[in-house]
Amino acid sequence: MQAHSSPILRVHRPFDLGAIDAVGFDLDHTLAIYDDAAVNEIAASAARGLLVERLSYPRAILNPADSMETPPAARTLAADLTHGAVIKLGADRRVLHARHARRWLEPGEIETRFAGTLDDRAGGIYSVYSPFELPVLWLLEELEAAAPLTGARGSRCEDIRRMLDAAHTGGLLKNRLREDLPRFVAASPGLAVALGRWVSAGKRLFVVTNSEPDFAAGVLERVIGTSWPDLFDVVVASARKPGFFEAPAASQGAGEMRRTGHALVMEGGSAATLEEMLGLRSGRVLFVGDNVRSDIRSARAHGWHTAHVAPELAFDDRTVADEWGAPLTHGGRPTWLAQLLREADIACDGVMRLLAIDPETPLVRREDNPAGAETP
Fold this sequence. Notes:
Layout: E1 9-11, E2 22-25, H1 36-55, E3 77-80, E4 85-89, E5 95-100, E6 103-104, H2 107-113, E7 125-127, H3 134-146, H4 154-169, H5 172-179, H6 181-184, H7 191-200, E8 204-208, H8 213-224, H9 228-231, E9 234-237, H10 243-246, E10 254-260, E11 263-268, H11 271-278, E12 285-289, H12 292-302, E13 305-309, E14 329-330, E15 333-334, H13 336-341, E16 346-348, H14 351-355, E17 366-367
Parallel strand pairs: 2-8, 2-12, 8-9, 9-11, 12-13, 13-16
Antiparallel strand pairs: 1-16, 1-17, 3-4, 3-7, 4-5, 5-6, 10-11, 14-15
Helix pairs in contact: 1-3, 1-4, 1-5, 3-4
């Protein structure tokens, strides 16, 4: 499997970067690039143990037959909570590809099982918005093989999500990552210089992450180096996105604050609180993130401009040999992820691509595609 080497940028809604006073960044999968396969294996292993220990799920899931996949098309996938299948969704919310209990479904089976469109809001599917959500799908599929159900899988999905959350909040996952952070998080040579160029252009930079303060600081140092406190005015940790963007300033005050060099590191708060602290107007802020649900939609609803970091832009049908296929097209048809990318003002295949732009330039509509790829 090979990605195109040329970076990709799409501008869906033009605006002037010169009119932007501040730029905010999500941390995980935006500034920090993880070894998703390794992290997901740890999270899934912890969740399996908790499912057996706390909820009496079958012990067979403790010894999975196959290792977990992290395909390029991960964020086009969803769990079908009616039939227990893993499905790939098209832009029209119809099923393009499907697998049930490790067996790939034929086109005729897909048409029979999945007539019409599927929607998250109806409660019949669980969509993946982040690579860290992939274990939900694979654990559901493992349980489908070990203990098949005849009814809806909604409660089973909720059990898995709760145990994965427990692995996160209980410290099982974060403690393992802290033990060997360089193994799980890639350093980003050149990121400090690229961010510094935007600071020199007069942009105020900040980070908003759901990770707790100490873990966020460790990841920032791993990715950027020891100069990270000189680059950011504020690092908001334990932000609880998307709620961070929805709460008014008065109802969501910040928690503990501390100075780390130039940077103010604070817990919680809200977008409105942050604007008051930095003297910002919402229409003059750009937020960069990877998650449609917690970053892009919520920041855009608050009035901020948005940039979606989507490494999937670097892949097409010719470069993906995985059975799930390309992230943005399938058999010449656009996927649901291709549709989601249009919700952001900008989509790019990495944060460095965005930072390479002149921070004072007006952005005009453009869609850079790999050669031969279809524009969704």
